Amino acid sequence: MKQISISIVLFFSMFACIPAQYADKDFSISINYNYTTTAKVYTNPNSSDINLRNRSMPLEDLFSPSIDIRYKISESLILGLNSELIEKTGINEIVVQTNSGNREVPVTEGFSVIPLELSIHYLVPFSTEAFKFLLAGGVAYYYGEHIRTLGDQDVSNVHRDFAYGIQVGLSSDYLITNFLSVRGEMKFRDPEFELTSRYNKESVIYNDQRVWFARNEFDSKVNIDGVTFTIGIAFHF
Question: What's the pTM?
């Protein structure tokens, strides 16, 4: 990721003096729908057992809405701010305590995260009046929550690390009019954040049997390692 970002910065530096065409509007706001290929949830990220520490729950096909605001700061450079809501769950198994001993039970497990991404978009010189091609790179902050439910039991997040990352991407606008365009984008990012969560109840009834949790608090780690594809409508002002 760092090598890709450095390459894009060098690309910007090489061509910053070349003018590129763009619509005669300074602002744009787009409403988008995103597809991210994969993510992982690690439920024992701090275990002393390397096998438990590296064991993850895979999540695939993440769909999410987003909004993107862009401001043209020069003929070839655009400042962008993007926010998204990603939420995905699956079925996992955890160990609980019962009157007859320990057992594994299925839970709904996953995460939700709101990225806040600040990017610089470079309008490449071969853009035309109708098609705009942009390369982007930037930094991001990720606000995440862990999700785990069993019956009427769920969890609250009590601690989260400051999570940041970088992203690079390529986007294209097809201008239908001078104030409306269709936008497509492909983005590469690899955010990772750790959380500490607490059960809201000491025990819960599962299959007519009371079960207790081995630990009231637990750590987890989320890694969104897939490629993100975006389609949206942009309004130019």
Answer: 0.86
